[in-house]
Design goal:
The structure is a homodimer of 358-residue chains. Chain A has 358 residues and is α+β, with helices and mostly antiparallel strands. Chain A has a domain at 6-179 and 221-287: 2-Layer Sandwich (Ribosomal Protein S8, Chain: A, domain 1). Helix content of chain A is 38%, strand content 16%. Chain A is built from ten helices and twelve strands. In chain A, the strands form three sheets. The first copy, chain A, has a seven-stranded mixed beta sheet with strand order 2-3-4-11-5-6-7. In chain A, strands 9-8-10 form a three-stranded antiparallel beta sheet, with no helix packed on it. The first copy, chain A, is globular, with a radius of gyration of 20 Å. At the A-B interface, strand 4, strand 6, strand 7, helix 7 and helix 8 of A face strand 4, strand 6, strand 7, helix 7 and helix 8 of B.
Chain lengths: 358, 358
């Protein structure tokens, strides 16, 4: 079934209000989750309401947080997320980065004591209307083995970068630094399909084509796969850098110590910081060159790449963000599809919280 | 044969002085090239003297440049490299980033009108003694096809990030964003070996195992390989971001318009900016949290990863920078090996420039 995005947003906001969130915070969470749905990333959309609710019920998330900067310089801030729902801590953090950039040219915020923040791209895109480049990084639960390791020490740690343009749509890269996301493996596993070598390994660290191997102690590989032959060590560098910027700089938990973001997993015994961590950047374009000049140059960059010769007529060369924009355009017009399993979950939660049904 | 690094550095400096560089600039170029040799990256070391010399002789590089900031905000600067040898423009740019960071918390410099700058890691490591994280990016000659493209539109665009530590050696990631570098393909090609699928494609964009395919119009693939099955589109995002930060932000040439860095290739007909571009960052750690706290936490991060269970006893889990540091320790003690082909090239150049032989 399909719903108008505004209806979904208002309904989702009501759920979080009923969980005890102030109205403004509930609105932020709803907006981030519906943005994921609109961009065709349902794994970070309404599917998360159930997990967030379970975390709130278990009192593992603070619904009345005071998200605030605890330390500042002209171009930086460290933000204490006060164990908020991730989107609440993250949006405030990115707003601070943007304000810093207005004065100092760039703004950089490391956030600790936060939780799962939804799609990384949401926060990077906040910079666009200010003629700024937006950057958003987060660490995540450990599912990924560094090169040569048999252990899960890193998350699928995404990087999002949004870059303004003049007439072309903006360049919006938003990607897990690993070759595949957990959600896609789960789908392959349910379908009984295998996956190519280079995505996962078993618990001993041997190559595997079993998408269900994570349930058996296996791990996702870094971008470039296992070992170094196809550059897996470079993927390890990228995923590690996102972890370090998000956690060691902010004072959050790094790598294997990131607290579980689902209530059915117990809290970890060892902690090396506060909560989960993010890192945000805002770069004022005219801190380097006139904004119009830059944006026209981006248009030329995009045109050059988009019109390059494709290896395959079925797949023209794309610009990061193309796919998500196409989906968003369609869903804004025709409504957002919600699969029945998720619809049922939302109905149950609405029932439990005494919120009017969707 | 092996030489003491100081002897190599002085000799290299003499060569660049004889080419017309001021003594201070010649010293910088020599230091960057010898740093590459010491770190076991000879493809970016003395091998480049011949190319740099040919570019100088062809008057395609300015040996008396005025490298200067043309625009500034508290945390940023745009630097005009004045067509200098890359290391001269890059070192000055990174120094400006570090000075900005001392006051504003972070410093970010986009450099245009530059040339090949050697190893990216050199500039990122300059930040370490200031208790800063150092970042260094550059674009490079187009050899890489974006996902689905049959054309070479991007360079092997490296990322270097150096992160301070307390008692552990620093974390130093310095890697081309592609799965393999051009130099390594050339070696495989000379040995008559093939390479695994996932590194290169032919001129039509079909997978290839021929390491010599670049000479036939082929291209290097992005990290994650061709297509999207193993995440090649994420590698495309990374390589594209390095290009955009280095060139569109600075006003240098992007992607396919990066000027050739060897004199035997003609200048390109079309230009979309000035020279080749770099991007540098310096992040003062205590702009986020007390430096000692951060550095101790980095030690814990490194210890956690280094002592994790390896999938293979022959290959323990490594920390970025481990390999290069081992090589450097050995070469500082025992001397730097120089292969006879490079030695002969250097002798010829010394002869031509009337410089005392090595």
């Amino acid at each position: 079934m399909k719903f108008h995005h505004q209806k979904l947003r208002r309904f989702t906001q009501s759920l979080f209000e009923a969980m005890g969130c102030p109205s403004a915070d509930a609105e932020v969470v709803a907006d981030v989750l519906i943005a994921a749905e609109l961009r065709g990333i349902p794994s970070h959309g309404l599917m998360r309401v159930k997990d967030y609710y379970a975390m709130v019920k278990a009192e593992r998330i603070n619904t009345s947080p005071q998200v605030r900067a605890t330390y500042e310089t002209p171009s930086t801030a460290t933000v204490d997320g006060d164990n908020a729902l991730g989107p609440v801590a993250a949006k405030k953090s990115m707003q601070i980065a943007i304000e810093k950039a207005k004065v100092a040219g760039t703004g950089w915020v490391a956030t600790n004591n936060s939780n799962h923040y939804g799609i990384a791209g949401y926060y990077s895109m906040m910079a666009l209307e200010h003629d700024m480049i937006g950057i958003s990084l987060t660490n995540a639960n450990p599912l990924v083995a560094p090169t040569y390791s048999a252990e899960r020490l890193l998350g699928t740690n995404p990087i999002a970068v949004a870059i303004p343009t003049q007439n072309e749509p903006p360049f919006i890269a938003d990607f897990a630094t690993t070759p595949i996301a957990r959600g896609k493996l789960a789908i392959k596993s349910k379908l009984g399909e295998s996956v190519p070598i280079g995505l996962v390994q078993d618990k001993e660290g041997s190559p595997s084509s079993n998408p269900g191997i994570l349930e058996q102690g296996g791990a996702i590989l870094t971008l470039g796969g296992g070992g170094v032959d196809l550059g897996g060590h470079k993927g390890y560098c990228m995923t590690a850098l996102v972890d370090i910027f998000s956690s060691v700089l902010s004072g959050a938990n790094f790598g294997p110590f990131v607290p579980p973001q689902v209530a059915y997993l117990p809290l970890l015994e060892q902690s090396v910081g506060k909560g989960l961590g993010h890192f945000f950047g805002a770069i004022r374009i005219d801190a380097f060159r006139p904004a119009v000049e830059f944006k026209k140059s981006m248009d030329t960059w995009i045109h050059t790449f988009r019109t390059s010769k494709s290896a395959d007529f079925a797949n023209p060369v794309q610009i990061p963000g193309d796919n998500e924009r196409k989906t968003e355009t369609a869903y804004l017009k025709d409504g957002v599809p919600v699969i029945s399993k998720i619809f049922d979950e939302l109905c149950e939660i609405a029932d439990a919280l005494n919120v009017e049904q969707l």
